[in-house]
Amino acid sequence: MRLKTKLVVSATGLTFAIVLILSALFVSELLRQRIEQTAAANDVLAHEVWLMTRQAVEMGLRANPPIDRSEEALHEAVVDALRSQAALADVMNTVVRYSPTVQDVSVTDAHGLTLVSTDPDAVNQPAVFRFSLSGLESSSVPHQMNVVFGKPRVLDISQSLDRNGAPFLVVHVGVRSTFLKNSYEPWLRAALIFALLAAVAAMVAAGLLANLALRPLEAISARLESLTLANGEASPRTLEAGAERNDAVVRVTRTIDRLGEQMRTKEAGYTALQANLNQMLDTLRDGVLLFTADGRAAMVSDAVAFFLPAPEGRGHEEMVGKRLDEIFAPDTALGAAVLEAFAEGAQVSAQSVVLEDGRQVQISLDRIDDGLGGGGNMGTLLTLRDAESAAQLGQELEVARRLAAIGRLTAGVGHEVKNPINAMVVHLELLRGKLMVGGTEAFGGASRHVEILAGEMQRLDRVVQTLADFSRPMELHLREQDLKQVVGLVMDLAAAEMEENGVQVMVAAPVEAVMVRVDTQLMQQALLNLLLNAMQAMPGGGEVLVRVHREHQFAVVEVIDEGEGIPAELLPRIFELYFTTKAKGSGIGLAMTYRILQLHGGAMDVRSSADASSPERGTTFTLRLPMAVGPVGEGRKIVAAGASHKGMGERA
Residue 625 above 50 pLDDT? Predict the structure, then answer.
C-alpha cells in the first residue's frame, strides 16, 4: 500500500473514531437528560398525590375523629379518611391513566403497609422494594442503559407525609422501565442514525481533505527533485522502484534526506572554510574589516584593535555587528579618514594617515559589487596597514631570503669541501710518518710546518661542519604549552653562569597562561642564545629584563639588556651568518635563533642604542610567536631546513 494511501486511511479512521466517541457521549448525555426530565415530571405528579393525601387526611379526621388517642385509633381513622375520599382515588387513577411511564400509585403507612393503591391487589399488602428513579439519574451510562433497556422492572418515586418529625404516610409512584424504553426508543433511534450519518460524513470529509492536503506534495516533490538535479545528482525517480516511484510522500521524504545530506556536506565545508579564514585573519598584521551594505561589520580581524586608540580599542569579537561610526570615532585621525572615505563612496588605495601616536597607516577601501549588473553594493572591504610594520616585514623577508640563499650555498659547499679535506688529512699523516726516520726528524724544521698545516686543516674542518649543521634539515616536535614555562626552564639553565658574571635576570610575565605551539628544545636554545649575548654585552655585570606578554594574536618575549649596544650601521647585518664583532665570536648564534623563529612561524626584531650618554643605552631583542590555536596535540613532527641543535651564539 502506498504511503499516501496509508496516510489518508489513517486520517479517515482517526476521524471516524473521534466522531464515534463524540456520538456516544452525545447519546449518553441525551439519555441522562431524558431520565432527569422523566424523574422531574413524575415527581410533580407524586407531589400532587401527596397534597391530595394530606387534604384527605385532614378532612377525614375532622369529619370522623379517632375514638381515643391511641395509635391504633388514629391509624383506623386515617385509613377510613383515605379510602372514603373519592377525590384522592380520582387523582391517583388520572396519574396512571395519562402518564406514559407510570404503572401504579399507592399510599403506605410508616411500616410499608399499602393503605390505598390503583392496584386493588396491593391494598393491605406490604409494599414491594423498588429502586429509586432519582438514584438512576446519577448512575453511570451503562447502568442507565441496563435499567432502561434491560430486564423489565419498576422504579419508585416517593414523597413522605411527616408527623412529629417522622414519616407518617408515604406516597409512591411506580415507573415501569418498559414504559421508559417505549418512550425513549424513537428519539434514541433518531440520535443513533444521526450519529452514524455524522460519522460517515466525517470519514468522507476527512478522506477528501487528506487527499487535498497531500496533493501539493507532487509539486513539492517536483521542486525538490529539481533542486537535487541542480546539485548534479541523478533524478530521484530513477533511484526508486515499484510503487515507491509513484508515491509522492516517499519521494519527498527521500529527496529531503538527500538535500539534508547535501546541506550537511556543504555546512561542513563552510565550517572548515570559515575556520581557515579565521586562522588566516588571526595571523595577518594588516587590519581587515568587511562591512555590509548597511554599514555594519560582518568580519573583523584581530589586528584591527592594534590600529584603534583607547577607548575604541577592543577585541575583534566585540566589533562584529557594530556600525562604522561605533568602531571609528570621528574625532580621531583614523576615524575621520575612514568615515570620509566611506562617505565619498569611491575606491581608495593606500591612502596615508598619520595617527596621534606618530604611526603612519595606509587605508584601502574596496567596494564589492552584488554581481547583478546594476551597480549594486553588496559590501565594502576596509584594509588598514601599518607602514612601519610593512617595512619591517620586508626587512624580515630579505633576511630570510639571505639565510635561505646561504643555506643552499653551504649545503653544496660543505659537501664538496669535506671530501678533499679528509683526503688532505690522510696524506698529511702519511707525510708526517715519512719525515720521522728512526725516531728522529729527517728534515730539520719540516715537522713544525706539518703541525701548522694539520691545525689549519682541523679549523677548516670545523668551519665546514658548522656550515653542514646550519643547513641540515631540522625535525620540529611541536607541543602546546605555556611560554612562561619555557622561559622558566631557560632561566634555570643560565642562572649559574649569569651569577658568576654579575648579571641579574628579572622576569615579568602575566598571571594568565600564554599558550604557544613550539619545539621546547629549539625555543630554549633560541632564548638561551639571546641571554648569553646579553651577558657578554655587559662584561662588568648589570641587569637583564625578560618580559613575556600577549600582543593581539602573538605571544611576545623581550630580552632587554643594559650593555654596550650595537651601532646603527651594523644592525641590518647582525642576523647574517658568520657576521660578528667579537674576536672569539662565530657569527652563527643570532642567525640560528632567527632561523628557529622562522620555523615556528614567528619573527624577531632588534632595537639598540650604542650612545654611552643615553639613558636608553642597550639592546632589546623581541621574539613574536603565534598564539596556539586548535586542539592540544603532542608529538607532531615537522621537518624543515634549518639549524641543528648545536652551538650557543654570541652577539654579532
Answer: yes
